[in-house]
Design goal:
heterotrimer; A alpha+beta (about 240); B alpha/beta (about 180); C alpha/beta (about 550); A: about 240 residues; alpha+beta; Ubiquitin-like (UB roll); Alpha-Beta Plaits; five-stranded mixed sheet; 6 helices; about 25% helix; about 15% strand; globular; B: about 180 residues; alpha/beta; Rossmann fold; 7 strands
């Protein structure tokens, strides 16, 4: 027997909206064309609440909450775009730019990069924190793909898509804090990975130019995202 | 009203921003009608003059000469503009930073040199440890990212500033564009 | 195990102990062991053997006696405490049992360090042999469990905990009764009880000491909790850096299983409970409950956003109760004596006692248990014995890397959850580091930021990159190269990390900076503007490539 899904009504940025009880603030915002920035969240993957860009204000709550994992509640009043939130988002994104060597002008994803677009959208014209300039590696040992750690933002989309959708779990994270990095298998060259199926899903969920196909030059790496919601939908229907 | 004084400065960059500046084509005439170009790699002035209203700075600060120059420019300029990604983010010049200056010198003056390899100790300015954005050394008033910013963007920024308005660039340009 | 059997064990043990007319207790917790207390115990054993007085004189290894700075400590049935004992002193100590004390070794106990303490959590520490369940049982051990199982409903147990006013001793001070009640009402096919023994604050060793001195007390607390919330499986997450605590816990679990206090149908009731150890691999963040749960599950130990809280969805997605070692150690006495008894101790909102690891620039360093609400001044100058070498007090740091530095005008403040929070610090797990005028507060802030940066898991951006940037600025201040912009950036980052980090580690990482900026702004100013370190700690170091 199918039960009617209880529906909650809430306000987002002053608009009266409704959502099913298991939906998140981000789900409802997205359905209604309200933009909330994010870099780790991706439709079709589990949510980790790690990038902190989707933090929103909820009336009566001291804490800022990540829209991607906060489920709607009756009577909730959400603000997604206050000046304070914009300031935090800009700082978080700036920190990300300082962390590794994000050189847009020579990047395969120039013009198609989520981080670059977000910076523009948030009005970032420069980064006021000093850059780190770490020495990062590029692993081009795979036949078809490359990982350039200079451009990785540790969103873990590759880790999740590989584990949750492809079922290979080739990707994971090693190290901690500022030294954390994504690895293939037990930090072996990607090309010698025995678990990688070369499906390429990680390439296409990567928000930046960190993961790309060989042979792509500056600005040539277009990412195709449609497969993910489609795969998820088909799987759910077959269940 | 006397004409405004405009300058352009070339630090560590590829000159692409200056090329984009020239790409303003006939609009250069409009700019010339609003301001005198008192200093630029495009004109013959040896010393950066006093009382500059707007200075467009291309390039990162990479050498001792760049550092000396940008401090002088700052002193003598009302509105300093970081023009293009090298000035704003250090961009391509900054890609040497993870390797250190020794590796850079060796690559440039030893490894690929067949005749009398050796690191120059005169004429060529010494490199700073890192190539860094302009605003890490002096106060910058306006940031115009882009690699290079389009002629359209530069025209907009220059004319707005010369007319005493604050340009809003985020809809026109971005890192890498 | 029935109540009668428990009584029987207690009787037998007390009977056996009553044969001894003389007793010598040697501390064999990590502090004293590290200054050779095992050799002292062996020496005493040999001497007793040699004298052939084995039947009258008992030499016992016991847990922590508190005054770690004076170890190895030995206490005797004559009521004398000896300090800095060596194996060669064995004969003299044995000789003194019926006569005059060995004056050169006597450690006076009529001083505030001992007199001001009130021992509940540590009541057995330094008294019983942590390796023998019989000794614990003889000291009323496991009677609270039996009482709960045979005389109380789980609801009544929770009521007592709620009435006691006990709050989580891990740091945040969440009401324990409320947490238990939430877990007990949560629905799941299986519930879990986890003991958080991942004590990781620099300078903190309360939990280690409790586990080394009285492991059964923690097990008993967990058992009562499991009964109260309806859990049948438990884990103790203890850091691998505590090998002695692990050894004693393993031994305690084995003994409790042997006598039927752990396992199926405990005390003839329907209640069953099993406990397993999980060793942490030294990540500070695994003390955060969601990271700890991930680690127990065998995953990478990183926190996740809450809600859902572990009480609803914890280990393996099931309702899970997580409490800290000291919290569990408080449970048995509360059940034995009633919630009202406990609520009489302490302040209005912070009940009971708190164990502190007193360290830094004080005469008496070690482990103390005091009623909530004693003043910082009493802690530092009475119990701690004041600042050595006639130096001036500067600050006391509480709460580890998540806490803050309290200056001298906070000295008369009572030590309780609310007062510490109001003053810009936290209770934390109980680390208390005293600093005198020779400490530079910028250097202290840098030390803690270095800790937070190194221990950040790297999951969320504000903590991962923010702690790096804050550490960079603090290093620059220490090197006298920081600018006014750096100071502005530092304050921005404090605000950013506090409000946007994913877990408590990141959210509280700015605390040492915020609290020193507030109370010692002058020191920061001196570094930045005058390029001077008033305490003479920071020196102008050569500026590296990235500085």
């Amino acid at each position: 027997m199918r039960q009617a899904a209880p529906v909650k009504t809430l306000k987002i940025d002053g608009r009266d909206l409704s959502g099913r009880q298991e939906e998140t603030i981000l789900d409802v915002a997205r359905q209604n064309g309200i933009f909330i920035p994010r870099l780790c969240e991706m439709d079709g993957l589990s949510d980790v609440g790690a990038c902190r860009l989707c933090l929103v204000e909820i009336k009566g709550q001291n804490k800022l909450l990540p829209a991607c994992v906060t489920v709607v509640e009756e009577g909730m009043e959400v603000t997604t775009d206050s000046e304070r939130l914009q300031g935090y988002r800009r700082m978080i994104l700036e920190l990300l730019f300082t962390e590794r060597n994000h050189v847009c002008s020579v990047c395969v994803s120039n013009g198609h990069c989520e981080m670059q677009m977000l910076a523009q959208r948030l009005g970032i014209t420069h980064v006021h924190f000093p850059y780190r300039y770490p020495k990062e590696e590029v692993d081009a040992s795979h036949d078809r793909f490359v990982i350039d750690h200079n451009r990785c933002i540790l969103c873990t989309r590759c880790v999740r898509v590989c584990d949750e959708i492809e079922g290979a779990h080739t990707w994971d994270i090693m190290g901690r804090g500022i030294d954390a990095k994504v690895i293939t298998d037990l930090n072996e060259p990607w090309g010698s990975s025995e678990t990688c199926t070369s499906c390429g899903k990680c390439i296409h969920v990567c928000p930046t130019g960190a993961l790309f196909e060989k042979g792509r030059s500056v600005a040539e790496m277009l990412k195709r995202r449609q497969f993910l919601p489609y795969l998820t939908m088909m799987r759910e229907e077959n269940e | 009203m006397s004409k405004k004084r405009l300058a352009t400065v070339w630090l560590d960059g590829c000159s692409g921003c200056h090329m984009s500046f020239l790409d303003m084509d006939e609009r250069l005439l409009t700019v010339a009608g609003m301001a005198d170009l008192v200093y630029s790699p495009l004109v013959d002035a040896k010393e950066f003059p006093e009382n500059v209203d707007v200075a467009l700075v291309e390039g990162a600060v990479s050498s001792e000469e760049d550092l000396h120059k940008i401090k002088l420019v700052r002193e003598r300029t009302k509105t300093l503009v970081s023009l293009g990604d090298c000035a704003v983010t250090a961009n391509v010049p900054g890609m040497r930073n993870p390797f250190g200056t020794k590796a850079v010198y060796d690559r440039a003056y030893r490894e690929n040199v067949t005749f009398d390899p050796g690191i120059p100790d005169q004429v060529v300015p010494a490199l700073l440890p890192n190539s860094r954005p302009v605003h890490e050394f002096v106060k910058v008033d306006v940031f115009v990212p882009g690699c290079p910013p389009s002629a359209e963007t530069i025209y907009y920024v220059v004319t707005e500033l010369l007319e005493g308005r604050q340009p809003e660039v985020t809809t026109k340009t971005r890192f890498g564009s | 195990m029935t109540p009668e059997e428990l009584d029987q064990i207690a009787e037998t043990e007390r009977e056996a102990q009553s044969h001894f007319t003389q007793r010598v207790n040697v501390c064999v917790a990590a502090g004293c062991l590290s200054c050779q207390s095992q050799a002292v115990k062996d020496g005493l054993d040999q001497e007793v053997d040699r004298r052939g007085t084995k039947d009258q004189c008992q030499v016992k290894g016991v847990g922590c006696m508190g005054l770690c700075s004076e170890g190895p400590l030995v206490s005797t049935s004559a009521g004398v405490l000896y300090k800095k004992v060596e194996a060669a002193d064995s004969a003299a100590i044995l000789d003194s049992l019926d006569g005059t004390p060995v004056s050169r070794l006597v450690c006076p106990t009529d001083v505030p360090f001992f007199q001001r303490q009130k021992k509940i959590v540590l009541e057995n520490s330094g008294v019983i042999d942590p390796d023998r369940v019989e000794d614990y049982i003889a000291a009323n051990g496991y009677t609270a469990l039996i009482k709960a199982l045979t005389e109380m409903t789980s609801r009544e147990v929770i009521d007592h905990i709620t009435k006691s006013g006990l709050r989580g001793r891990g740091g945040a001070g969440y009401p324990t009764g409320l947490k238990w009640s939430t877990v007990s009402k949560s629905v799941g096919t299986q519930k879990y009880v986890i003991c958080n023994a991942d004590e990781g604050d620099p300078g903190a060793f309360m939990d280690r000491s409790v586990l080394e001195s009285d492991p059964h007390r923690v097990l008993e607390g967990m058992l009562i909790a499991a009964y109260a919330v309806g859990a049948s499986e438990g884990y103790i997450y203890v850091r691998a850096e505590y090998p002695l605590a692990i050894k004693r816990l393993k031994n305690a679990i084995r003994q409790a299983e042997r006598v039927g206090l752990l396992g199926a149908n405990i005390c003839g009731t329907r209640f069953s409970f099993r406990v397993d150890l999980r060793l942490g691999a030294g990540a500070f963040v695994c003390g955060e409950e969601t990271a700890l749960i991930a680690s127990v599950e065998g995953k990478r130990g990183t926190p996740r956003p809450r809600p859902p809280y572990p009480a609803m969805e914890g280990l393996f997605g099931q309702p899970t109760l997580i409490n800290n070692v000291e919290t569990f150690a408080n449970i048995a006495p509360i059940i034995r004596n009633g919630g009202e008894w406990y609520a009489q101790i302490g302040t209005e909102k912070s009940k009971g006692t708190k164990v502190f690891a007193l360290a830094g620039r004080v005469e008496n360093t070690g482990l103390v248990e005091v009623p909530m609400g004693v003043s910082l001044r009493e802690m530092v100058f009475d119990i701690g014995g004041g600042i050595p070498e006639g130096r001036k007090f500067k600050a006391v740091q509480t709460g580890g890397p998540s806490g803050g530095c309290l200056p001298s005008d906070c000295l008369d403040m009572p030590v309780d959850y609310e007062s510490l929070a109001r003053a810009g610090s936290i209770m934390g797990s109980g680390g208390m580091i005293v600093m005198d005028e020779s400490s530079c507060m910028v250097d202290v802030a840098k030390y803690f930021m270095d800790f937070c940066m190194t221990e950040s898991c790297g999951k969320c951006i504000p903590c991962r990159v923010g702690t790096y940037q804050m550490h960079r600025i603090l290093t620059a201040i220490g090197n006298m190269t920081a600018t006014a912009q750096d100071m502005k950036m530092l304050e921005e980052l404090c605000d950013l990390l506090k409000h946007t980090s994913l877990c408590g580690l990141g959210q509280s990482a700015p605390n040492p900076v915020v609290s020193t900026l507030r109370s010692f702004a002058e020191e920061y100013r001196a570094h930045v503007e005058e390029h001077k370190c008033p305490a003479g700690v920071c020196g102008a170091q050569p500026v590296g490539e990235t500085a």
